[in-house]
Amino acid sequence: MSAELQDLVRIDATGTAHPVGKNASRWLRARRGAFRLLPAPQHVVFMRFVGEDGQRDAEDGAVVRLAGEITKPGALCDIISLVGQAGWEGELVALDLTSSRSLFFKAGTVVGARSSVETDRIGEVLYRYGALGREQIDATLAALGPDQRFGEVAVRLGFLDRARLYQLLARQAEEIAHHVMLAGDGVFYFLERFDEEQIASRQNLTVSGLLMEAVRRMDEARYFRERIPSSMHVPERLPGRAPPTNELRKMWDAIDGHLPIAELARATGQGEFDATRAVFQLIQAGLVAVHAPRPTGPTAIVTLFNDAVRAILAEVDEAGHGDEVRWQLAAFSSGAGVYDALFRRAGPSEEGTVLPEPTIANAIVLAGPEQAETMLAQWLYEYASFAMFVAEPLLRLGADGLTQRRSELPPVEHSGVPSIGRDAPLSRRVGPLIGQLAPK
User: How far, CA to CA in Å, does 333 sit from each of 326, 327, 337, 344?
Assistant: First the structure.
């Protein structure tokens, strides 16, 4: 059963709701109780819990002040701007099938953030910024007791000082906020109040500052990804070039031709976005070049695949052919006989990406532990290659407009290969990524 059908509920002629898919059944079971059906457009069903008395009481949950569907990245920026300007107090929740992120507002500022996503947890944030290593994270988790916070235990163990922890707790809240604002799919709810105990670390982030940073990231990311397709790409210094004398020197000194940008971010204590920007500026200055990552292990293989498919679908979406390519990929997946099982509980998302952990676990079940990595690379290579095969003819149909927009940007310089501009064919820009997955 497809992901869409897993969430399906059918209402019959008597008004009885029947869950069709497992997700729908599970969600409805978790909401057992008395709900009031609220007035809504014909194509929407909106209910809220009221208890057996049928009245909306304070203990029945926060009032839903705003709600809607998320259909594209940046869609929530207008909602956040409205909440900030109105000075509302409450919780903005952004949900999709696999994750939940919340921002807590008070007097026009974001005072806290919460996420169910593993990579948003403070331990992972401390790791990405180079504040803790994996061994220190494991030791902190082992010492963590009931009602204790990860950061406080890490400070007590001497792994970092309190000032650095406070700084990175603010970064954690900022990153969650950026994920919310850049979400491209799902639903959102603004709840009129929240429990202060839900906020693990109280912050004071201005809405205007968060919005400006989100817009800047969306704008700059379009340029970055042409030259630096992923944080797993590896920069290397170009021979005979003098080092920079400005703030880029720290990144220049860390580049050794082996560390990917994600690890350079740890080495320099920056976030991945700031590290990517620094490498991008070094490329523009003609001081470094980047090469595609060399996959070492199943997680790196899935990361390469995600970067390649995300780039393909982003381009066909821009050309207005995204739905057709996704339909072709769905047909290819069903016909091949392996992808439904490989992608079970893993995706693909609207961007085309899959979750690494369930994908790898599914590959082990399908191919066995010894052959899982080899077969995973082969299956993902064939899927991404088919996506390229389907996309390129469709892109040529509307190539004039796309070429004109891309040609306004500078070309991409790679060491030892011709410049690759934004007007280059998709295969020249994404092919090196897919090539890394090809069976050896």
Answer: 10, 10, 7, 12
Name, in order, each residue with C-beta under 8 angstroms of 80's C-beta and a sequence gap of 6 or more: 92, 103, 180, 181, 207, 210, 211
Three-state DSSP class for 89? coil
Report the candidate in 82, 36, 40, 75 with the shortest Cα–Cα distance to residue 56: 36
Domains in the chain: boundaries: 1-53, 63-224, 228-291, 298-407+423-435
26: tokens are 């599970």
Contact (CB, 8 A) for 77 and 214: yes
pTM for the model: 0.65
Q: Please say whether the beta carbons of 104 and 190 come within 8 A.
A: no
Query: For residue 41, which of 69, 6, 10, 74 has the smallest C-alpha distance?
Result: 69
**Chain centroid offset of residue 301 CA:** 17
The gap from C-alpha 178 to its chain's centroid, in whole angstroms, comes to 10
CA atoms within 13 A on the CB side of 8: 10
351 Cβ contact list (under 8 Å, min separation 6):
184, 309, 310, 313, 314
Please give the Cα distance from 433 to 293 (Å, whole number).
8
HSE toward the beta carbon, residue 10, CA cutoff 13 A: 7
Neighbours of 29 (CB within 10 A): 9
Could you give the angle at which helices 322-336 and 298-318 cross, rounded to 10 degrees?
A: 140
How far is CA 209 from each of CA 173, 180, 215, 216, 225, rounded to the nearest angstrom?
13, 15, 10, 11, 24
Sequence-separated (6 or more) residues with CB below 8 Å from residue 24:
6, 7, 8, 9
CB-CB contact of 238 with 286 (8 Å):
yes
Structure token pair of residue 237? 């210094």
Per-residue pLDDT of the chain (440 residues), as tens digits, is: 566 678 899 999 999 999 998 888 988 998 889 999 989 888 999 999 998 888 888 888 889 999 999 988 888 999 999 999 999 999 999 998 788 999 999 988 999 999 999 989 999 999 999 999 999 999 999 999 888 899 999 999 999 999 999 999 999 999 999 999 988 889 999 999 888 888 888 999 999 999 998 888 888 877 787 788 888 888 999 999 999 989 999 999 999 888 899 999 999 998 889 999 999 999 999 999 988 766 678 988 898 899 889 989 988 888 888 889 999 999 998 888 899 999 998 989 888 999 999 999 999 999 998 899 989 999 999 999 999 899 888 887 754 444 444 444 333 333 333 333 444 556 666 777 787 777 75
